[in-house]
Amino acid sequence: MNVCLAEKAKEKETDRQKLFEESATDSKPRARTTEEIKAKYRKTGVQDAATAAALAKDKLMERQEKLQLLNEHTEELQNGAQDFASMAAELAKQMENRKWWQL
């Protein structure tokens, strides 16, 4: 059992050393060129504006569908609450005139 613990400790130590060795080589941040930034984000040209507008429209439609579903669920819950309230009122009327020994 002690051998397993010693082996695990050695594995952790070697993993830790590997991590620190990799970070030591790239410790200084590198400035990116404008081409690299443009390639990463692709925010140039008229086509990107059209794509962004289409994406915004799609998200708007998804949001509208979610809101409609939420509205439907809200109406269902409201109807269920009204049914429950009316049943509770009926039960209260029925139990109003009963005595404790009639329960």
Could you explain the architecture of this structure?
The protein is mainly alpha-helical and 103 residues long. The chain has a domain of 31 residues. The chain contains three helices and no strands. The chain is flat and about 85 Å long. The model has no long low-confidence stretch (mean pLDDT 81).
Q: Radius of gyration from the CA trace?
A: 33 Å
In DSSP terms, counting alpha (H) and pi (I) runs of 4 or more, how many helices? Answer: 3
Helical percentage: over 70%
Strand content: under 5%
What is the overall silhouette?
A: flat
Low-confidence stretches: none
Order of helices and strands: HHH
Main location: cytoplasm
Organism: Trifolium medium
Keywords: Coiled coil, Cytoplasm
Region (Disordered): 1-34
How would you concisely characterize the structure shown here?
GO terms for molecular function: GTPase activator activity; myosin II binding; syntaxin binding. It is found in: Cytoplasm. This protein is mostly helical and 103 residues long.
